[in-house]
Every structure is written in C-alpha cells, then in structure tokens.
Fold this protein.
Amino acid sequence: MSIESLFSPLRLGALQLPNRIIMAPLTRMRAGANGVPTPLNAKYYAQRASAGLIISEGTAVSPEAHGYPGDPGIYTAEQIAGWRVVTDAVHARRGRIIMQIAHNGRNSHSSLRPDGSVPVAPSAIVGNIPALTRDFQQVKAEIPRALEASEIPVIVGNFRQAALNAIGAGFDGVELQGANSHLIEQFLEDGTNTRTDNYGGSLENRSRFLLEIVGKVSGAIGADRFGVRLSPFGQYGGIHDSKPKELFTFVIKELSRHHLAYLHLIEARGSEIGLTDELHENAVNNAVLFRSVFNGPLLSAAASLAIEQKHADAIVFGRLFIANPDLVERIKGNQPLSASDRSTFYGGAEHGYTDYKTFGEAA
Ligand SMILES: Cc1cc2nc3c(=O)[nH]c(=O)nc-3n(C[C@H](O)[C@H](O)[C@H](O)COP(=O)(O)O)c2cc1C
C-alpha cells in the first residue's frame, strides 16, 4: 500500500472505516480488580479514536482464560459495564472499536486461575516463555493439563457468550485471538497438539476447535462483525508446526466459507509480540502467500514492511499506537513519530499509557 492509499475508506463487513490505519490488539495489563476496565482504560482508547479501527487488547472469555495479571475479561456483568464506558468514550470521539476475545491456554499461570490449578492446553506440553504471576513475577512456565474432550464444547460456548457480551457492551464487532501461541493456535499446530481424539492428528481435526468457535460466534453476532487473527509461521511461545503452509492454507480456505469481516495476519518476525522488527530467517510473507486463499479483506500486522506491499487492505500498527495517540494525523501530516518505552508496556497506571502526547501537545 502507498501512504496515500492508507487514507481511503475501507469496508470490513458491516464496519465502515474512514482510513486503513488500524490499532493492533495490545495487552497493557491495566484493568481494574476482577478484570473490570476502568475510566483510565476508556481514556487510553478514546485518545486513539482517530484510528480507522481500534482492536482491543486480548480479553479473557472466562475466568480460566486469563493469561496475565491485569488483563481484562468479558464474562461478568461488572466487566460488561466497565467496557461500556470504554466503547462510549471511543464512540463519543467518532471512533470504532472491536474486542479481541482470547483464551491463553498454556501461557497462563496457576496464580491467575480461580482454583489455582495449572493452565490447560490441548496436550501436556510446556511452553518456552516465562509466565507472569498475579503479582507480576516472572516464573518458569508450568506443565499444562491436557483438556478433557468434554471440556472443549464448554470453552467453545465461552467464546460465543463472550462475543455476545462484547456486542452487549457496545463494541462494533469482535476479533478472535487465533494467533500468538494462545489456546486456539495451540490446538492448530502439531508441536503443541498431540491429541488422539477428534481435536488432534489430521489438519481437519486440529482446526476443529477454531472452526467450531468461528461457526458459533458467526451465528451469534453475524460473520460481518467478526474477524480472525492468525500468525502463520509464528514461533512465539515455542509454537511450531511441521507443515505450516499446508496447515494455514487449509485453515484460511475454511475461514473463507464463513464470509468474515476480515482476516488479520501477523507477519512472522523475530517476535510476533513486537520485541524485534527482524523477520525470521527465510520468513515467508504471509500476506503474499495467503492473499489468494482468503476471499475477504486482509489486514496485515507488519508495519513498515506492509506499507510497501500491495497485498493487504489495511495496515495494523502496535507499538506506534502506544506512543502516538494521533498516529493517523502524524502519518497524514508526515510528522515525526514518537518511540514507545518498553518498560511501561505492561502494568502500572497513566505513565506510558495515557501520557504520550499528540504532536500538537508536544510541540
Ligand atoms: C505491549 C504489547 C502487547 C500485545 N498484546 C497483544 C494482544 O493482546 N493480542 C494480540 O493478538 N497481539 C498482541 N501484541 C502483538 C501486536 O498486536 C502486534 O502484532 C505486534 O506488536 C507487532 O506490531 P508492531 O510492530 O506494529 O508493534 C502485543 C504487542 C505488544 C508490543
């Protein structure tokens, strides 16, 4: 995409975007007690309302789905009311916001789980990134418990209800976290899924969990308000598959049948969570590889890389939106961009969250 084309409108299913500069889902670990969003969260999102679309931070679909201290939820009346303040604030500034719904699977920690039990996953295979405890301590990942087959429909139902709750809280739509080593990706890839039931083994079986969720959520809120995020070839969290091209070609073909609002692809970099900008060695360009496989709008989380490529319909920016609440205006005005401070990404309060200035304020 060229810089100019970022400023043309874009239709994503039922959503009409005034520009193609999208705010990435960004976990900031600043929700209030019990995963309830606060007025500070509302201020942060409202500051960024000129984005073509805001995708919220990953939000837990159930008490068992949390992955980090201070990550929000969307399964209690209190949480729905808290999110309503956020969506109202964004809409008051004429923005659009959708919620990313998530289950962290094995990347969680027992201290975050209601009964103190170890995290769940398709199979009892440990991840390679440290977990964060309730008290923000980094600790070794725990060996997860493999989900019983009977538990899987319950989790599928949690995603459906979370999507309905998000719409009830005033969100314009919902994105499914199928990327970055969360539970859905743990089911998809054979490095994390060695199940021998209907949810493991063949491509069809490993994709079943994702596709069941997609079917249920589409049925509940409408596919035209629903997008899916994937990270083909990603390696974050020790995730890997023996045949990623075949796997994601199959998955994306299947997703095409649902007529989703969009597919959101992360380019495989040294870190899909924005730790480095380096592409993996020999990395394929996901937007190029899968553009022809998907029949709807394609969002690319690849920042500078994607602006030069023609395969995406919109570009998704993460860290630049952390540091530049007025990113859209700055790109349009060719103004300098501020850099984000990694030390304030996760946890804390206003500092590094709502105190980044617009270009006008900083001048
Ligand atoms: C602080 C931080 C939190 C993130 N949280 C999420 C998240 O909740 N869900 C998700 O899908 N990706 C998450 N990511 C990944 C980003 O959405 C994005 O793909 C990544 O930062 C690369 O884009 P960038 O180079 O524009 O920052 C996070 C990244 C960062 C830096």
Observations:
- Residues 4-362 form a domain with the TIM Barrel fold (CATH 3.20.20.70).
- The mean pLDDT is 94.
- Residues 26 and 253 are 27 Å apart (CA to CA).
- The longest helix spans residues 203-221.
